[in-house]
Amino acid sequence: MYKCALVLAAGQGTRMKSKLPKVLHKVCGKSMVNHVIDTLRKVNIDDVNVIIGTGAELVRESTEDKKVSYSLQEETLGTGHAVICAKEFLKGKKGIVAIANGDAPLIEPETLENVINSHINEKNYGTIITSIIEDSTGYGRIVRNNEGNVESIVEHKDCNEEQLEIKEINAGMYIFDIEELLQALDKLSNNNSQKEYYLTDVIEIMAKKGLKVGSVVAPFEETLGVNSRVQLAEVESIMRKKINERHLVNGVTIIDPSNTYIGRDVKIENDVIIYPGCILEGNTIISEDCVILQNSRIVDSFIGKGTEVQSSVILQSKVGENTHVGPFAYIRPESIIGDDVKIGDFVEIKKSTIGNGTKVSHLTYVGDAEVGKNVNFGCGTVTVNYDGNKKHLTKIGDNAFVGCNTNLVAPVEVEEGAYIAAGSTITTTVPSDALAVARAKQVNIKNWVSRRGLYHKK
Fold first, then answer.
1. Which among 85, 367, 427, 453 would be 20 to 30 A from 229, CA to CA?
2. Is 67 annotated as a binding residue?
3. PROSITE patterns, from UniProt (predicted)?
4. Of the candidates 400, 398, 395, 425, which has an alpha carbon nearest to the alpha carbon of residue 412?
5. Could you tell me where the DSSP H helices lie in 43-148?
6. Count of Cβ atoms closer than 10 Å to residue 66 Cβ
7. Which of 179, 215, 217, 210 is nearest to 200 (CA)?
8. How confident is the model at residue 148 (pLDDT cuts 50, 70, 90)?
9. How far apart are the C-alpha atoms of 281 and 261, rounded to whole Å?
10. Rounded to a whole number, what is the largest CA-CA distance in the chain?
């Protein structure tokens, strides 16, 4: 069966008090709308259409790599109006459409898949996700007929005394038969105090037509939407707790889960230890037996088995096995660090390849470089990669030794097994097996200081 989805992402979100569209605010390192799209993809939705309005171009930019289409809601005239704006997307399609809110990122794939299967198996024309809560004040109530099917959704202000006692509420997520939804949309009216078109009215339209409308109860916290910064923090806390618990169950040690921040797409193998203050984001993979020590940030990177990262930042890079990074190292995007490597304190690696067994122990910058195996970098080494116009490549062969305080002015090559004396500025190739010394001869001028009155003995 063909399955598509609409994501409602046109709301202004005035209570967020932000220049950023509400759905682009991040939860666990990812914008809310992208959480929703990714969840829809996990349940094999064929096509996703994002309904945009406020900040349309920003939402497009944030979601353009998700292979979605867009419908524009120029005026925010209610949820029903938002879906009406997507009629062109739905026209001519047969199957089912899921409708989700772009500001409700906590819905789990398993829950959504359960709703879709229930819709199909029960032969429903509409299926609502509902929740049961003790205090249903302010929420739309689910009203059922004698057969137990959903008859209507009644907003709190319109409820009679009997309906006010109902604990089952509308979560704002739906599955519809596409053809019947299109027919129901044509009958929507804005004859209400808000002069808006409500998607909830579709339920009553279908029920009056004799079409079966069912429901699936989901945990209330999965249906939470975000309308303020306070709610954003609440949703962040819930998602982070669930993510961390999943990793704990799978064999990861998290010393202090309340102070560990792991993105939803991060993969961590068992017997990894994560210390407090760490932030793991994007499509990061942490292999088994790694230790990620305090206050490290790793984004879209691969960390090999048995590697230790201490108080360091790694961005969009690959680090091999049994390697030590930090403390206070900075590995910038497009770097590849080999096995048994040491990237020490206050070392910055930028767009470079570092071979197995190499040691870059401290206070060194390696940028735009290809470094071989078992190379030793002395303290204070700099690959001088930028001439003011272009970046240039430095090549260092296997088993080379680079003395302290060396400048390697690219483009330049240090061949296999070469040595460079401390304090050298290297501008041409250093041949294999050679020692390069490139520094001015020391000259001592006697009594230079006292003649200038710069120093007086007491």
1. 85
2. no
3. HEXAPEP_TRANSFERASES
4. 395
5. 56-63, 79-84, 87-90, 109-121
6. 15
7. 215
8. confident
9. 8
10. 108
Write the single-letter amino acid at 299: V
Are 320 and 303 contacting, i.e. CB atoms less than 8 angstroms apart?
Answer: no
Q: 183 to each of 161, 188, 206, 212, 268, how far by Cα in Å?
A: 33, 9, 9, 15, 47
How remote is the C-alpha of 238 from its chain's centroid? 16
CA distances from 397 to 40, 200, 334, 370 (A): 49, 68, 20, 8
Class of domain 3-223: alpha beta
Closest CA to 346 of 368, 369, 366: 366
10 Å Cβ neighbour count for 351?
Answer: 18
Say how far apart CA 318 and CA 333 lie, in whole Å: 9
Flag whether pLDDT at 216 surpasses 90.
Answer: yes
**Which amino acid, 81?**
H
pLDDT digits 0-9 by tens, 43-71: 999 899 999 998 999 999 999 999 999 99
In the numeric block, the tokens 């299967």 are attached to 117
Residue 161 burial (C-beta neighbours within 10 Å; 0-12, 13-18, 19+): exposed
DSSP 375-434: -EEPTT-EEE-B-SS-B--EEE-TT-EE-TT-EEESSEEE-TT-EE-TT-EE-S-B-TT-
Phi then psi for residue 401, to 5 deg, are: -125, 120
- Mean pLDDT over all residues of the chain? 95
Residue type, 253: T
Q: Which residues pair with 97 in a beta bridge?
A: 4, 176
* Strand ranges of the sheet holding 302-303, from the earlier edge strand across to the other edge: 267-268, 285-286, 302-303, 318-319, 336-337, 353-354, 369-371, 394-396, 412-414
pLDDT tens-digit profile of 321-377?
999 999 999 999 999 999 999 999 999 999 999 999 999 999 999 999 999 999 999
Question: Can 156 be counted among the known catalytic residues?
Answer: no
Would you call the peptide bond into 276 cis, given omega within 30 degrees of 0 as the criterion?
no
Instruction: Say how far apart CA 285 and CA 288 lie, in whole Å.
Output: 10
* Top-tier CATH class for 246-436: mainly beta
**Spatial separation of the C-alpha atoms in residues 323 and 304, rounded to whole Å:** 8
Among 272-276, 399-403, 446-450, the range scoring the smallest mean pLDDT is 446-450
Residue 156's pLDDT is 86
**270 in a labelled binding site:** no
What is the residue whose two structure tokens read 């990061």? Answer: 284
Check the annotation: does 162 bind a ligand. Answer: no
| Domain map (residue ranges) of the chain | 3-223, 246-436
439 among the known binding-site residues? yes
